[in-house]
Design brief:
single chain, alpha+beta, 8-stranded mixed β-sheet, 23 strands, 39% strand
């Protein structure tokens, strides 16, 4: 591999590149799905190859291949040069990279139990036990469970002298119960609706989920939702569970702070951003309680790593401090345009993709409101919503609507009537401005979101969001004319 990398870099430099880097990546995945007591799917994939990125006359060129030999490395290096020269004809703003120093290092995700060393029998037993517990609940029509494992090994090297080797291991799983009657269906998921909880770590994280231990209550709630009344409409205080706060962060805080969206260089897949750079340090994003960080160093986060795919070390960087916009997710190219170094958020999904600005772990710091039950007890009248079901947000990340799987009316500090199809709507700064309480660190969880899409061709991103249950005052809830 060392010779392959050196040949690719040498071909790029001899061809006139002012900068070049190479990523050699191998990604292994395993997924198991059980549905209604039977193995629905079992997949195992391995993908390996390398990508070469070059900078010529202020423009990028990129090419890649799965053929891992030195002759191919030289060819791909030359092809990247040709693409860069063609790009230079049309580019508007020449690329200037920040002064991130090259490093030589190794990084490995810590874990106790290698998920790929756990037998299929053990994994299937976990899913079958959860399925059996859901099956004991009358009225559940569809029972599903899944487990996922991943391992990525990659080497990054640059013409500036960087050489970084990383191994990132991921594990996770979850269950879903769907109840059906003559007119509708209702679903309940555990522990979230993101496909389950996924972390950087070993199989110990899956065991800690205790899927079988939560399966019966998950199924019972799905059935109960069939007979529950519809969510009421009106303006009321809203308490969200940690999983819904996490998705709210993702859609209305994470994506709009991606600086390539702000500049309009990434727009076609999911829009741009209302957070133009003139708002930096000036825009009130939310209440004084809103402290949001991009933390790629957080233990176990699905957006945790040692270095991004430009060789920038993982960092913990504030995006919103005391409700004020103070930062963006940046790359070595975009950081200098706002007078900053990259904070290390350029990542590519695979060896055949060019790095894009991606979320790391975008975390809302916990507050001091105690437990979820303490927060509900402190809420006179309102509604509590749990686990996302649907979402919609405009292409500037301003106007949104979210729907959850279940809601409970809060009366005089008590969770009372279960309601179905709860929804809420808002405008991003106004919504975050209504935040007046966040639960304490004991309620805070770093959730993994393994299916964030961006770019064309589309790249999947693995990101994380730390959140605790939170309360928002005077939110528009349900379906109505506002």
């Amino acid at each position: 591999m060392k010779e392959l990398i050196e040949r690719a870099l040498d071909a790029a430099e001899r061809g006139g590149a002012s900068y070049a880097d190479v990523r050699v990546v191998e990604r292994e995945t395993e997924q198991l799905t059980v549905k209604n007591g039977a193995l629905e799917a079992a997949t195992s994939t391995v993908s390996a190859g390398f990508g070469v990125r070059v900078l010529v006359e202020g423009a990028w060129g990129f090419s890649s291949s799965r053929e891992m030999h030195t002759t191919e490395a030289e060819r791909i290096g030359r092809e990247a040069l040709e693409i860069a020269r063609a790009s230079a004809i049309a580019h508007r703003v020449p690329v200037e990279l920040d002064a991130t120093p090259p490093v030589t290092d190794r990084y490995r995700t810590p874990y106790d139990e290698d998920p790929f060393a756990v037998s299929l029998d053990d994994k299937l037993r976990i899913l079958m036990d959860a399925d059996a517990a859901m099956a004991r609940v009358a009225g559940v029509a569809i029972r599903e469970g899944n487990l996922s494992s991943g391992r990525e090994t990659k080497t990054f090297a640059s013409s500036a002298g960087a050489w970084i080797e990383q191994e990132i291991v991921e594990s996770g799983g979850g269950i879903d119960a769907t109840a059906v009657n003559d007119s509708e269906l209702q679903q309940r998921s555990y522990p979230n609706s993101f496909g389950g909880q996924m972390v950087t770590g070993g199989f110990e994280a899956v065991r800690a989920l205790d899927l079988a231990g939560h399966a019966q209550e998950t199924a019972e709630l799905a059935v109960a939702l069939l007979d529950a009344p519809q969510c009421p409409s009106g303006e009321m205080d809203l308490v969200l569970d940690a999983t819904q706060v996490a998705l709210q962060i993702h859609e209305s805080c994470g994506h709009p702070t991606e600086l390539d969206r702000v500049f309009g260089t990434e727009a076609s897949f999911a829009g741009t951003s209302f957070l133009t750079t003139d708002k930096l340090g000036k825009l009130r994003y939310g209440s004084d309680l809103v402290h949001i960080d991009a933390d790629a160093t957080a233990p176990g986060g699905l957006g945790t790593f040692g270095y991004d795919d430009e060789g920038v070390p993982a960092q913990n960087v504030p995006l919103i401090e005391g409700g004020m916009l103070v930062g963006y997710l940046t790359s070595r190219e975009t950081g200098p345009r706002i007078g900053r170094q990259s904070m290390g958020s350029a990542r590519a999904w695979s060896w055949n993709h060019i790095p894009l600005i991606r979320m790391t772990n975008i975390n809302l710091r916990p507050g001091d409101a105690g437990s979820l039950e303490d927060l509900i007890a402190d809420t006179r009248d309102g509604i509590f919503m749990s686990i996302n079901k649907s979402w919609s947000i405009d292409d500037r990340r301003l106007n949104f609507q979210f729907g959850d799987q279940a809601g409970w009316i809060i009366k005089n500090g008590r969770r009372t009537q279960l309601v179905k199809n709860p929804t809420y709507t808002g405008i991003t700064p106004r919504f975050w401005g209504s935040l007046d309480a966040i639960c304490s660190p004991s309620e805070w969880t770093l959730w993994g979101l393994p299916n964030c899409g961006k770019g064309e061709p589309m790249q999947i991103g693995h990101v994380g969001h730390g959140a605790a249950p939170a309360r928002f005052r005077g939110v528009k809830v349900g379906v109505g004319r506002w």
